[in-house]
Amino acid sequence: MQKGDLLYAGKAKSVYRTGREGVVLIEFRDDITAFDGGKKDILERKGCFNASVSAYLFRLLEEHGIPTHFMDLVEDRLMRVRALTMIPLEVIVRNVAAGSMSRNYPIAEGTPLNPPVIVIDYKDDSRHDPMLNDDLIVALKILTPEELTRVKDIALQVNSVLVRFFSSLGITLVDFKLEFGRADGEIMLGDEISMDSMRLWDNRTGESLDKDVYRFSKGDVMEVYRRVAEKICAGEG
After folding, report:
1. Domains of the chain from N-terminus onward
2. What pLDDT was estimated at residue 37?
3. Exposed site from 15, 29, 114, 143, fewest CB < 10 Å?
């Protein structure tokens, strides 16, 4: 399937038309950014690693009855997906206190969170993605109360599947970001699930296995992405 006109270019992905109504292509580029674009680089094959991991995890979630936009991976960095009208929210599920949660609140990094904490941010770079509560989400007419309940339910279902999966690999799923969209009246998971959108720690060593390696100059981020992608996709064949 060939790429058509460019519809949208984000920080690390581009979306293209196809010749089929309701289907688009997402290209995972090699761009990597942090701190609202204050730090950015291009790292060879980074897009390929994120595309392969996203495809694997979307398939896993579909097998567990969770609706996603994923259709197939047509090239090593090109994913065919259902076209969604995206909902301008970032839904963050936290299993362990880390990052901004520990910086902004009196809770030590590494503190387990049971039950998991769901944080929802308004997706708007110009406003630095402010946190929203349920009342604001409804007042802004982003979601109805019923839709908000549905989004949270899906997020927790995703968390349950992924926590078990990563635990089997010796990895702690600390937290992760989800984005959702609508197609034919249904809310489903969109965007990506990759090392860019998750915080992963090695169970044994506590080593960061995600974009924090790049954010905080903890080592060779591409070597980490390669190792994690190979571990995740080891059973694919």
Report:
1. 6-82 (3.30.200.20), 86-220 (3.30.470.20)
2. 81
3. 114
